Amino acid sequence: MNLLTIDTPALIIEESKMNANIERMRNKAKSLGVTLRPHLKTSKCWEVAKRQLWTAQGPATVSTLKEAEEFATHGVKDIIYAVGIAPQKLFRVAELLRQGVDLKIILDNVQSAQAVSAFCQKQDLPIKVLIEIDCDGHRSGLKPNDTELLAVAKAICSPARLVGVLTHAGGSYDVNTPEALSQRATGERDGICTAAKRLREAGYDIEIVSVGSTPTALSDTDLTGVTELRAGVYVFFDLFQAGVGICNIDDIALSLLVTVIGHQKEKGWVITDGGWMALSRDRGTANQAIDQGYGLVCDVNGKLIEGLFVSSANQEHGIISARSGNNLHLEDFPIGTRLRILPNHACSTGAQHPKYVVVDRSLEVKEIWDRFYGW
Amino acid sequence: MNLLTIDTPALIIEESKMNANIERMRNKAKSLGVTLRPHLKTSKCWEVAKRQLWTAQGPATVSTLKEAEEFATHGVKDIIYAVGIAPQKLFRVAELLRQGVDLKIILDNVQSAQAVSAFCQKQDLPIKVLIEIDCDGHRSGLKPNDTELLAVAKAICSPARLVGVLTHAGGSYDVNTPEALSQRATGERDGICTAAKRLREAGYDIEIVSVGSTPTALSDTDLTGVTELRAGVYVFFDLFQAGVGICNIDDIALSLLVTVIGHQKEKGWVITDGGWMALSRDRGTANQAIDQGYGLVCDVNGKLIEGLFVSSANQEHGIISARSGNNLHLEDFPIGTRLRILPNHACSTGAQHPKYVVVDRSLEVKEIWDRFYGW
User: Fold this and answer.
1) Quick check: B348 and A281 CB within 8 A?
2) Residue A315 is nearest to which of B8, B41, B261, comparing CB atoms?
3) pTM of the model as a whole
4) Long-range contacts of A182-187 (CB under 8 A, 24+ apart)
């Protein structure tokens, strides 16, 4: 089996690039003196996850309880579920704890803290809780100096236990210079350390001080006071991360293998079987300096074809055209030609696929890896 | 089990609305005097598909060979695979034919016609072919008057057999008045009838004259000369179709059940566990008269809450805010509140989920239906 014979569309992992990306983040965490807690939401695949993890038991980050449950079946024990807990999900949390998984949850309000505490009392279960901190106003969490911070801590009652604070500099996705990224990383560190300090001064034992986003993790910073770093999309990278400036296009380990199925001569379009169902609807680069459409175009070997992009996509059709002018020679792309599309966003493109096809510096298929989905 | 106890995010079908949508399209096809060939790509679910089909054997339309294979296992025989064939996919087509499935394929160029003919000769297999016609310049197909049309027909050699012409007025998605839709439907009919006439005059036996898109199918038109109508998204409808003007928001049968997990008081945000992983990245309404963000907000009973929308989404977080002003009272949405989000696009939101939860005018769960994915 090779990339000239397998059916398309198919999602391809270039293993050597993935391994290099994993190594880069591991070295970065080491140089920063913090524990790396990889976010496994990008791949939802044990074969990828186990290469990212420091030990087979973790530490790991997940975005759904389904991920926690799946990775727990492979023996991962130390997990943070890094999305604010919805109280009705506590039964699934309890089940994982009873299986011996050291699953930690997060929350950012008194009401959730009370619900968790009441549940723990009723079930006689010591759930570990981190308070979510908002370091840049992009989503959830309490501001580091929020007056409610101590009220939330106080509402986490035994046997529930406050063990740490967690933040995610999602705002770092909006910048694209090393200076701005470094500033965001510093803001992320300062925010979380302020919150940790306030809680410690109030008498709480804050073991975990957790930060993370791929852009801030890879930027120039000093993480004194932080205990661990979370990051996910670095495992594959994508055009969005290249636009942020923390990887090169050549580092992107994920691509969609497609086949040319038609042309529109007047318009200079090459039409493929890789539509948005296979690429996802993610247009994350639309607001970056370079809008990459639905993705950049490589030949079957993964070599970038300059000047082309997927300019439009329907459910099962991708339209490739020249970014400017009429320099697209349709005769170079006869029916049946195989191309590889670099995606805007590895997390959303991955989500469209039940499996990854793994290759390594050649067209030969090394392995097929299953990917799960759902909640 | 009911919508207050099942885990979230969960994709909900309101069965009575779905049935009414199915009935509406069936009556429309009847009044137009054409056969309805439902497109099954929207649901990828046999329980939905069997309700759309006229008989358990078909006719049906699919967008992938995976759909053809899945629905064939349930006994569907008369299928058009309505995406231009990639030659390497012919082995899977052949396998379905050998199983007794009357699978028809489409193409729009001489090179594909030659590849199909060569394959059919080698395999001694009579694959039925339709030529794809481009009625509005939005994607694939030959223009009705294209000089290549007869060359493509000629290149389809026995045992391959030209049986018809097919077009899809995808451009109808860009308009939003009954007059404009009616004009698109007329253009779709005129285009396909012109192509059919030219082929018949050249001596070809054109049995199938196939048109279809949900907006043109439901608009005011006369389909004289057309034999069949294809449409898919009508089964659920969505905010995009409401924006086009061919359904009411109250007709939308698909919604995402979510739970409130937090608030940002200063910003007036309600944060839920329904992010883009569950809603999809589809922002199809962004270019319509009303941009619906990532979706409109209903209470758990499905009653629209005026003035709210999902203004932003991360992977597992949805942010609900007031469309204008500060009229969002966070105290109305305590932690744990369940809401239902109407999606922009039923096809892409559906694709994010392994199953549908079926309810009917109450919160009780009637059934759980599996949904497949992949290619």
Assistant:
1) yes
2) B41
3) 0.97
4) A182/A219, A182/A220, A182/A221, A184/A136, A184/A215, A184/A216, A184/A219, A185/A216, A185/A217, A185/A219, A185/A220, A185/A221, A186/A221, A186/A222, A187/A135, A187/A136
